[in-house]
Design goal:
123 residues, mainly beta, 7-stranded mixed sheet, 4% helix, globular
Length: 123
């Protein structure tokens, strides 16, 4: 069974950094484009970033450009989201998800989802 497992969330002060990881179990991650999506309490899900199968193409939401970096290590079957200069509005549950096509990932149309990891930015 295909599983995605997120880790790395936590409580951080404004201006701080976190690195989220998305590990795959039961399948080879490099068969998929991967995205990160977040959801804050009472708000709709928001696409944050996505990366193509080989890592050559990446996309970011305007709200995180210049602060977040998505990367992947297919040898470790893991995708990362490096988050710097975090703001309170970055608070939310962060999910990683997989799509078999980068266009689908750009549209945030994913076939497989993880359970999420909570990120809280607060002083």
């Amino acid at each position: 069974q295909l599983q995605l497992v997120e880790s790395g969330g936590g409580l951080v002060q404004p201006g701080g950094s976190l690195r989220l990881s998305c590990a795959a179990a039961g399948f080879t991650l490099d068969d998929y484009s991967i995205g990160w999506i977040r959801q804050a309490p009472g708000k709709e899900r928001e696409g944050v970033s996505c990366i193509s199968k080989d890592g050559g193409s990446r996309s970011y939401a305007d709200s995180v450009k210049g602060r977040f970096t998505i990367s992947r290590d297919n040898g470790k079957n893991t995708v990362y989201l490096e988050m710097n200069n975090l703001k309170p509005e970055d608070t939310g549950n962060y999910y990683c998800a997989a799509a078999d096509d980068f266009l689908k990932a750009l549209l945030y149309e994913f076939e497989h989802w993880g359970q999420g990891t909570q990120v809280t930015v607060s002083s």
